[in-house]
Design brief:
Elements: H1 2-10, H2 20-23, H3 25-28, H4 43-61, H5 66-72, H6 76-103, H7 124-135, H8 143-153, H9 161-181, H10 184-218, H11 222-239, H12 241-278, H13 286-294
């Protein structure tokens, strides 16, 4: 089978219909690219830094208001929350672009679907593999084409249609694990952002309580006490702003992540249906099955 694949690759056109190296959003700007729909290690955090700097630049130019002072009154923790939020959103946006590229593989004419009488056998699989390598630059870079390639490359080594279905099922489980692992960083950020908000609140409360103790020790007349208490109460309200920022940011990221995850799951379902209809449904291994039965 390897000899056949080598001969097929030699006969391929120079420009495939679908190219991961030319179409992937990270590869196009010369950044390290993650596999399939996983973002690479550099583009998302770099864009997070740029967005955070732009956000604080816009705040400094905007008129002072309650919304702007929430991020500038105690700048350290809100700045970290803004950065992690921007990083998370960039991860999801990059995943969305990568998923759109992966979905294009569903439209490739790898099998002669226009011929209702087409039968997939070990011999006709060589023609399908030729079409596959002519359609994509590397089948291992796409979820769907990797399933098709692995199934057809092992077609001579299996004796039953159920064996091919098992290969596709195992590959599908591997793809599900690949997608699940691509959300590890996001899940960590969704946990860390509210915790940062709580830390900011605790720090603010400790400062406010310390100021309150100083007011009680140094206050003389009631008017002085009233003015000092207003400052303390204002500090308490400021302390809870970081919790609000963290909770709102985590909620937005989680909703966006849920929608993106749902789209990826639907895509994997489409890949499964495609393989069931065009690979398993077209297989004819009667001779091999008869040999297995005879043995």
């Amino acid at each position: 089978m390897s000899t056949v694949l080598d001969m097929v690759k030699e006969q391929l056109p120079s420009e495939p219909q679908l190219s991961f190296s030319r179409s992937d959003i990270e590869r196009r700007i010369a950044f390290p690219a993650g596999r399939f729909t996983s973002p690479g290690p550099l583009l998302a955090p770099l864009m997070g830094v740029i967005i955070s700097v732009a956000f604080y630049g816009a705040i400094t130019l905007a008129p002072e208001s309650q919304a702007t002072t929430m991020f500038t009154r105690s700048p350290v923790i809100p700045a970290v929350i803004v950065f992690l939020t921007a990083w998370s959103l960039m991860i999801l946006l990059i995943k969305g672009r990568k998923l759109s590229l992966q979905r294009k593989a569903l439209g490739l004419a790898v099998l002669p679907t226009e011929d209702p009488g087409f039968i997939l056998t070990p011999n006709s699989a060589e023609h399908v593999l030729k079409n596959l390598y002519a359609s994509v630059d590397d089948p291992q870079n796409f979820f769907l084409t990797r399933r098709i390639h692995n199934a057809l490359a092992n077609l001579r080594n299996v004796g039953r249609i159920g064996d091919v279905a098992e290969v596709l099922r195992t590959q599908g489980e591997t793809d599900e694990g690949q997608i699940d692992s691509s959300y590890t960083v996001l899940r960590g950020f969704i946990w860390a952002i509210p915790v940062l908000g709580f830390i900011g609140t605790v720090l603010g409360l400790s400062v406010a309580m310390g100021s309150f103790g100083g007011v009680l020790n140094n206050a003389g007349e009631m008017e002085q006490l009233r003015g000092a208490l207003q400052t303390v109460v204002g500090g308490l309200s400021t302390a809870f702003e970081t919790t609000l920022q963290g909770l709102v940011a985590a909620l937005c990221i989680h909703l966006f992540m849920t929608m993106t995850r749902r789209r990826e799951e639907q895509f994997l379902d489409n890949c499964k249906d495609y393989c069931q209809k065009h690979i398993v449904g077209k297989l004819r291994l009667t001779e091999l099955e008869d040999m297995g039965t005879t043995e």
